[in-house]
Amino acid sequence: MNIICWVRSDFRLQDNHMLARAVELLNENPKATVEFVFWLNPDYIGEYEARQQYFFQALEMFSDACKEKEMPIRFIEGDEQAFLDATGDADVLLFNAEYVEPFKTRDEKIIKKRKDRQTERLLDRHLLHPHDIKKQDGKFYKVFTPYKNAFMKKDIPAPYEVKWQTLRDHYQKRQHDNSFINAYFKKAESEAVFYPGEKQAKQRLKKFIEQSLEDYEENRDLPAVDGTSLLSRYLRTGEISIRTVYAAVQEAKESKGKQTFITELIWREFYYMILMHFPESKRQAVNTQYREIEWEKDEEGFKAWCEGKTGYPIVDAAMRQLNQTGWMHNRLRMIVASFLTKDLLVDWQKGERYFQQKLVDYEAASNIGGWQWAASVGTDAVPYFRVFNPTTQSKKFDKDGAFIRKYVTEIKDLSKQYIHEPTAEQRKDYGYPEPIVAHDEARKRAIARFK
Ligand code: FAD
């Protein structure tokens, strides 16, 4: 029996459902062999710079870790047929499930084409399958709190133990030309953005639990403080498993921070479940009431927003953080999304796509969910009349202006009194733009439009 493990966005040797399943099969079939493959389809290479760089850095680290354990990955390049040809002799094909499009359809096609040969799609990226939680009437939840209550009553799978020595003992090394992948690795290396790797992810989790979890409730809203886990990029590439994170947090000392953090992990599950049930929500508001909103074209406003030149320091600092680092703090994601969709009345889909292009941790479900929440068009979203005031948010969450000073450097010398809202004269002196929109008027316009 020949088992192929199809590596995708699950770059880790520990707590990996696919690898644990391979070990199980090897134990049942001592003569079986195993091999890891990674398929690169050039059709899926888009323009998502930072995320792609990070992805290939993470893949290279994983590839090196596998080599070190004498289990080199075989890299395949080409279309679907190339993949099917290259894995044609697999009696068993294993992979961790991805239910988001276009990957869901791709996987289903592969399963169909392999006909009656064993192909297993395993739950790994999430704690529960999107169909695992249903209401009593069999329908799925659309409101978060009852979903969360139901989630808390479920048995959550424990981390999988992977005996990689068993994999190594059965590993089938093939002669294969892997050289094409080096070009991708090289490009990513030259523009390294973060600290990829399974080890780094684990260290980050440990540090967060030891130093920040207890105060997470208070600090998670302060962009100038290192108060959140920064695990999203590792979860995105599968360098850490969600089960490992969940289990480690469960073991931590009781605190309000711990409970709030668990709630955030459940939001991740919730949005995933919502996207499964509303696959069209990339292009359509989940709330049918708000599908016909007349959005403004405002190309200039959108450009200023993208570039961090709106004249609202907290919005601009946030957008510059995104453009420079490929990541943005959660509080700021809410502020800039509200600004774009309410103050500028620009369609949330434009913002969603911009985030897709820039975010290292882009997850379709969380991004669409977050944008529809902020734009008040999603399920269980913020009510349309609650429009964030960017200046008030700034004063509350970046009190001393430390975060603004870091990214909007042209006004870094302004005192805490003016940093959130410089005077006209100061804007002129420091070369910082006038606000592109007056918030109070924009707020009224947005409420009237939604009404
Ligand atoms: P922490 O605060 O440490 O949270 C831990 C983990 O919980 C995160 O890594 C993430 O997996 C999950 N999580 C936290 N908050 C949320 C949330 N509101 N919704 C879903 N999951 C959550 N998150 C993404 O992973 N990818 C995205 O593309 C994304 N786009 C967003 C767009 C908007 C407009 C908004 C408002 C939020 C978005 N989020 C997204 C959610 C959240 O902002 C990020 O998960 C978080 O900022 C990542 O940083 P962290 O790992 O330090 O988070």
Automatic annotation (TrEMBL):
Residues 1-133 form the Photolyase/cryptochrome alpha/beta domain. The keyword Lyase applies. One of its GO terms (molecular function) is deoxyribodipyrimidine photo-lyase activity. This is Deoxyribodipyrimidine photo-lyase. Belongs to the DNA photolyase family. Its cofactor is FAD. Keywords: Chromophore, FAD, Flavoprotein, Lyase. Its EC number is 4.1.99.3. It is an enzyme of class 4 (lyase).
